[in-house]
């Protein structure tokens, strides 16, 4: 914007006229800032480069698929270019477009995420489906529904967790979580165990997240549940591996 | 990254200011400054009138993104100790990067008779007909290990990928829920930006004590389907 203003001011000083030509674009258009960007035939690193768009030329953004953008050059060629290359591209105002690789805290703010986890609670395998929302750069909330497979009992569990992730500059990031959970039990051998009550729990945990690109997160997590049922309280440990995507 | 952008902006600004100065001095017929000799002859012509483009910011929401994929599949499922039966299912996937995707599958089948039941006649049945219903769901992570292209004819080529998947899920069979680990491979052909066809080979593994002592059963799925991107 500053650059643009200066251009206009200088143009005024020189010619005393500044005709306003309104740009009329359909798709969002960017100006290339890199020496050139490479245009591939398909969205994948191995597909051949059939065209390059040079610095200063304009590109139209048509669509996005994973970390690739479908672009149209001013000369009409249509192909796919990597998101990281477009991140260094300029908006018509002359400032870098809002696409570069910034800290994940910023780009994940107000984003949704879905994923699943696989783990081991004490000796029993478990898995869960998770849906989360991240209202702040450092704070997210997550709902979880899962199953635990004990030898004699299958348990459904539901949980709600708060995830605190204060650092968001690096690909590998620590986080902490706290939440509540509810367990319901189903005996595998109906003859042996009759009615089993529900149990409530409090969850504390922490882990490391590894961000692969802008949309993919691998989590390794350790949790402690304090489960109470029938005025009994039990501590349970769980290890988890989680995979998440953002949108 | 920011440094790079700043560096670029500052450099451009300096260059432009310099060029403006030169243009202004040329227009006012001022005497030639020694700096003018420094300007390389290869420079683009000075643009005196700058088109006034209204500032406009781009957010990713302005773009058509194709991350989600939904589809249906059909095939055969070889249920360990039982028979091989038709399988139907639906799938949904989220493509996070060009390499990784997350996939959810739900499939249904119905087990036939074990060879023991076949040989023992119609009055020997190990499971009720209801307990023969086999259904599963799973959450898988996929990796496009061999992306490529296939050439149908001189003018018709499609993008394709050979991928591997692995994950966890639940299998309901014989009236029991079983923790299931699934591994598999598949091949996808992208017919259009939004339409793909795939063929999959998967092994659904779970411990079952349904008809004998607890053992790991391998339930092999061979299926094919179409998916739509949106």
Describe the structure.
The complex is a heterodimer of chains A (about 250) and B (about 230). In chain A, about 10% of the residues lie in helices and about 55% in strands. The longest helix of chain A has 14 residues, at about 1-15. Chain A has 2 domains: about 1-100, SH3 Domains (SH3 type barrels), CATH 2.30.30; about 105-245, Porin. Chain A is mainly beta and about 250 residues long. The radius of gyration of chain A is 26 Å and the shape is elongated. In chain A, strands 7-8-9-10-11-12-13-14 form an 8-stranded antiparallel barrel. In chain A, strands 1-4-5-6 form a 4-stranded antiparallel sheet. A two-stranded antiparallel sheet of chain A has the order 2-3. The relative contact order of chain A is 0.12. Chain B is mostly beta strands and about 230 residues long. Chain B has 2 domains: about 1-55, no CATH class; about 70-230, Beta Barrel (Porin), CATH 2.40.160.20. Chain B has helices spanning about 1-25, 115-120; strands spanning about 65, 70-80, 85-95, 100-110, 135-150, 155-175, 175-190, 195-210, 215-230. Chain B has an 8-stranded antiparallel beta barrel with strand order 2-3-4-5-6-7-8-9. In chain B, strand 2 and strand 3 form a beta hairpin. Chain B starts with a helix and ends with a strand. Classes of the chains: A mainly beta (about 250), B mainly beta (about 230). At the A-B interface, helix 1, strand 4, strand 7, strand 8 and strand 14 of A face helix 1, strand 1, strand 5, strand 6 and strand 7 of B. Strand 4 (about 60-65) of chain A pairs parallel with strand 1 (about 65) of chain B.
Summing up helix and strand content along with how strands pair, one would put the structural category of chain B as mainly beta
Following the backbone from N to C, one meets helices and strands of chain A in this order, namely HEEEEEEHHEEEEEEEE
Would you tell me which CATH topology of the largest domain in chain B applies?
Answer: Porin
Biggest β-sheet strands, sense, barrel of chain A: 8 strands, antiparallel, barrel
Architecture (CATH level 2) name of the largest domain in chain A: Beta Barrel
């Amino acid at each position: 914007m500053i650059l643009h203003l200066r251009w206009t001011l200088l143009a005024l000083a020189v010619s005393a006229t500044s005709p306003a030509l309104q740009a009329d674009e359909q798709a969002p258009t960017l100006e290339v800032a890199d020496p050139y960007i490479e245009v591939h035939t398909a969205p994948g690193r191995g597909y051949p480069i059939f065209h390059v768009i040079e610095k200063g030329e304009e590109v139209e953004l048509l669509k996005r698929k994973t970390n690739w953008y479908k672009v149209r050059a001013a000369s009409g060629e249509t192909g796919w270019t990597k998101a990281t290359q477009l991140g260094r591209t300029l908006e018509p105002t002359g400032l870098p477009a809002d696409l570069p690789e910034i800290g994940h805290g910023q780009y994940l703010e107000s984003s949704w995420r879905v994923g699943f986890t696989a783990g081991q609670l004490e000796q029993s395998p478990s898995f869960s489906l998770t849906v989360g929302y991240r209202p702040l750069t450092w704070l997210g909330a997550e709902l979880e529904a899962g199953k635990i497979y004990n030898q004699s009992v299958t348990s459904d569990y539901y949980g709600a967790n708060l995830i605190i992730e204060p650092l968001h500059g690096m690909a590998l990031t620590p986080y902490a979580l706290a939440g509540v959970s509810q367990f319901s039990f189903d005996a595998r051998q109906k003859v042996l165990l009759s009615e089993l009550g529900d149990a409530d729990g409090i969850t504390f945990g922490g882990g490391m997240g590894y961000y692969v690109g802008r949309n993919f997160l691998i989590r390794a997590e350790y949790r402690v549940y304090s489960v109470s049922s029938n005025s009994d309280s039990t501590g349970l440990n769980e290890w988890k591996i989680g995979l998440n995507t953002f949108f | 990254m920011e440094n790079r952008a700043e560096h670029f902006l500052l450099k451009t600004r300096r260059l432009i200011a310099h060029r403006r100065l030169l243009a202004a001095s040329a227009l006012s017929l001022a005497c030639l400054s020694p700096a003018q000799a420094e300007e390389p002859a290869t420079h683009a012509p000075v643009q005196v009138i700058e088109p006034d483009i209204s500032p406009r910011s781009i957010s990713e929401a302005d773009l058509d993104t194709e991350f989600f994929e939904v589809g249906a599949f059909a095939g055969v499922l070889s249920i360990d100790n039982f028979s091989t039966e038709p399988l139907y299912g639906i799938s949904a996937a989220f493509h996070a990067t060009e390499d990784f995707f997350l996939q959810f599958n739900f499939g249904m089948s119905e087990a036939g008779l074990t060879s023991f039941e076949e040989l023992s006649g119609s009055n020997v049945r190990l499971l009720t007909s209801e307990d023969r219903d086999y259904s599963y769901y799973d959450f898988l992570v996929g990796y496009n290990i061999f992306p490529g292209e296939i050439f149908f004819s001189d003018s018709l080529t499609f993008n394709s990928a050979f991928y591997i998947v692995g994950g966890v899920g639940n299998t309901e069979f014989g009236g029991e829920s079983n923790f299931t680990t699934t591994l598999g491979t598949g091949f996808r052909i992208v017919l259009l930006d939004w339409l793909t066809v795939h063929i999959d080979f998967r092994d659904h593994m779970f411990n079952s004590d349904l008809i004998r002592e607890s053992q790991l059963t391998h339930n092999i799925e061979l299926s094919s389907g179409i998916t739509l991107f949106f």
